[in-house]
Amino acid sequence: MATLPACNRQDQQIQQHKEAFESLGATTEAICEAWLAGDVSGTYTHTALAQTFLLVEKERTALAAAPEALLDPRGATLSQQAEKLSRTLAALTADVSAADADAARRHLAEIPTKP
Amino acid sequence: MSAIVDLILGVVTSIGGFVEVGSISTSAQAGSEFGFELLWAVAAAGIMLAMLVEMGGRLAAVSKRSLAAAVRERFGIDFQIVPLSAEFIVDVLLLAAEVGGAAIAVKLLTGIGFQWWILPIGVLAWLVLWTCGFAVIEYGIGILGLVTLCFVVSAWKLGPDVADLGKSFVPTLSTHHHLRYAFLAVSIVGATVSPYLLNFYSSGTIEEKLKVEDLWVNTTTAYVGTMFGTVVSMGVLVSSAMVLGPRQIQVDSYEQAALMLVPAFGRWAIGLFAVSLGIGCFGAAVEIALNAGYVFAQVLGAPWGANKPRLSASRFTAAFTFVLLLSLAIALIGFDPLRVTMICVALTVVVMPAMVLPFLVLMNDDKYLRDHKNGPFRNGFLAVLTILGALLALVVIPLEIFGG
Asked: Rounded to 5 degrees, what are φ and ψ at B376?
């Protein structure tokens, strides 16, 4: 009985992290799509992707701050997806710097945390 | 004729000067997370603000005293130190957030880190305060701020369902994330009813030498200007709800918020967002610093006014310079401007009763208002607002700490 509220709290926390990563995945997609469509400049895209990367890292740190969340299979999967999102963001930032639209499209399809 | 010109300029300024760091952040977050559901909060906050600034202007026009000067005279400095300290803390933090918001706007355009722009923006704000008169500060920034109408154009171009919009003006409980919903509702009120606006508006009324027979100009400007200004905030919320909401993008940065204008403006979107954010925040920063000068000089009984030579109003000048420097120091520490904004918004709600209670007493004092005292409706409104402020504060603090 005593573990029930703790479980609920953990569920809530994992759900919150999941929503945050999905939001950041969707943000990455929206920024890159706008860049590929020619709607936003490379300068903005670079800045926005760098900011999104920082937010992903912050959220990853918050997730890792609760070891019990990482023991939960959902938390562990989320942690792996978040790491992949970070790497995809790094790759996309490099694509934008090199103005390589084809590579950006390829990496865009690899975003692991979409809603 | 002069009154008509004053009215038009006042309304235009209210529209252009309405949107700043708090309203953009809270409306963008509300729209992206809850669709149109929190439009009622924007409308309610707009009504509150309109009524409060009208009262501030009326007090100043009739009594020839600003709100801060009247509170000092009526209650004494021993009492005033409490609301004054509270307002000082909120204003310094809000000023830091506004400078940070303006710096992020430049970052969006240049790609250069926002910390690099804080000092230049601070210097520019100080130069504006040092060299410009009240009309240039108020009307100049307000007219430039008309660029924020791009949010309304965006919302209109996105074609929201009118029935859905209409339904959102009725307060309802959200179907999900109740705590977050309540926190954002409170934040919207806190972001709109900033304490500095009340004294700034009453001081501005004195600067403009508004006569009692022209009180209708004050009333019309307060209500019409705030109504149109509120529509701009609603434009932010609707654009965010229709562009970011469906993609489930929660606004945690201004870079994300800027995307809301892309469907409506294409390649102009980021530039328009950055210019809107920049002008809105810079204008608010100048007004907050100017109001700090007003308040300190008024409380000390020293000469004040944006139309006075700065060296002849030394305490007024020293006060806005000091507050600006303090805020720049906070901004330079390397904070997250969005986070500071949300803290300011919560603090605003906390200090609201301390601002409103003395205001309520003043607005019913024959000595100050003569035949222009508050009626029962306005008194009731202020009383409800004060209680609501205290209750909201009780809700918002634990929410901010534990669940916000």
From this structure: -60, -35
Residue B349 and residue B389 in contact, taking contact as beta carbons nearer than 8 Å: yes
CA distance B357 to B53: 15
pLDDT tens per residue, range B48-95: 899 999 999 999 999 999 999 999 999 999 998 988 888 888 899 999
Q: CA angle, corner B11, sides to B6 and B17, nearest 5? A: 115
Q: Minimal CA–CA distance to B97: which of B22, B19, B199?
A: B22
ipTM given for this complex: 0.91
Residues 50 to 79 of A: which have CB under 8 A from any B CB?
51-52, 55
Residues 6+ apart with CB under 8 A from A70: A63, A64, A76, A79
Give pTM, 2 decimals: 0.93
Cβ of B255 and A48 within 8 Å? yes
Average pLDDT taken over every residue of chain B: 89
pLDDT of residue A1: 44
Which has the closest alpha carbon to B236: B38, B36, B28? B28
What phi and psi values does residue B253 have, to the nearest 5 degrees?
-155, 160
Dist. CA A115–CA A18, nearest whole Å? 9
